[in-house]
Structure formats: structure tokens, C-alpha cells
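Hello Y.,

Per our agreement to keep a running log of every chain we model this quarter, I'm adding this entry. I've kept the format consistent with earlier entries: sequence first, then predicted structure.
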Amino acid sequence: MRTVGKTKPGPQCLISYPRGSSWEDVKPPCPEEVRKQLVADQQGLCCYCMARIRVDRMKVEHFHPQSAFPEQSTDWGNLLGACLGGQDEPEAFRRCDTRKGSEQIGVDPRDAALLARISYSATGKLQSNDNAVLRELESVLGLNQKRLVDNRKAALVRYVQLLRRRLGTGTWSVHALLSELANLRGQSELPEYAGYIEHWLEVAIRKHGAS
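Predicted structure for the entry above:
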């Protein structure tokens, strides 16, 4: 996962809907404008698993579920962009918002301090010393399913191959790695699973800086 920033004040079309309006009341073209802004804010990635999202292939996630917090249904700050989450797949393979349903969780993609308590193992699994956080990552969101772990590892392999073509096969300097990290984060559309790539770069920078 990676921190989701929110453009403020958000799509102008939402302002015409009073607080407490149902999301189902939001009329076209406003839903598409919302999806476009979510994709832009999240640099093209699902707020949970970091798979690719597109305006025509995504879900609008209400972090605080509409069933429990109807007054936040059209609150821009409560809206996130999520992938389809395997909605047509067997339940065991569902993930992200599709798997979570209307359950309220504490793992908030907007909360940088909380996400700092989440890291990755050497095998690409999400991990946390906070058992409640780990339960939500694995059981509620399904983010350590084998397919997702394999996708993260494959994304990193592709990225490292690109680095070797750009920087050569020798030892890379801290300056070069910092530049690559800045370039990665500055892209309008990030590569899928960019949070895992960021983690790998940050670890590499720390190791080089300590050597």
C-alpha cells in the first residue's frame, strides 16, 4: 500500500449535493468526474492492492461505509478509487473493497503514519507488527493472496531490469537511487504495485548509505 493524497476541494460537481445525500443520487456526469479525479490523485493505482485502475474499470470506495455513515456518502474526503477486486471470481479470490464489503477497517490509505507501520517481507508479503493491522490486510482485504504477492515480485523484477538498462549492472550510488525514487514518485501514472518498488528502493538507499 502507499499513501493516497486527496486533491482539495475535490470535484466541483459534488458541492451541489448536500451532506447526507446518497451516492445513488449523484447524477451523470458527476460520477465520471469523481472517478477521473480519484485515478489522477492515486496515480492510476487501486488504493489497497495497487493494481491498475481506469475510469471505466474501477469502483468508488467509501472508506467509511455508506451503511454506517450515510452522511459521508458524497463526502469527497471519504471517497477512494479501488480495483474491481475479483468481483466475478470465487469469494476466496476476492480482494480490496469487493472482499471488505461494508466492514469498517482501520487500515486507512490516507493515513501516512498508519501505513508507516506496514512493510514488506523479502518474499513480497505485506507485514506489520500490529496484529490488528495484519488481520485486516490479510483476512479483510486479502492483500497477501498468492496472486498479488506474485504480481508484486514480478513488478519489481521488471523494474530492476529497467534500472540495469539505465544505470548499468554495477553498484548503484545513493544519488542514483534517490533520483530513481523521485522520478518514480513523480510519474502521473505509476507502475502497478509501485509501493513495493518504493520499499525496495528505500531499503537499497538505506543499505548503501550505511555502507
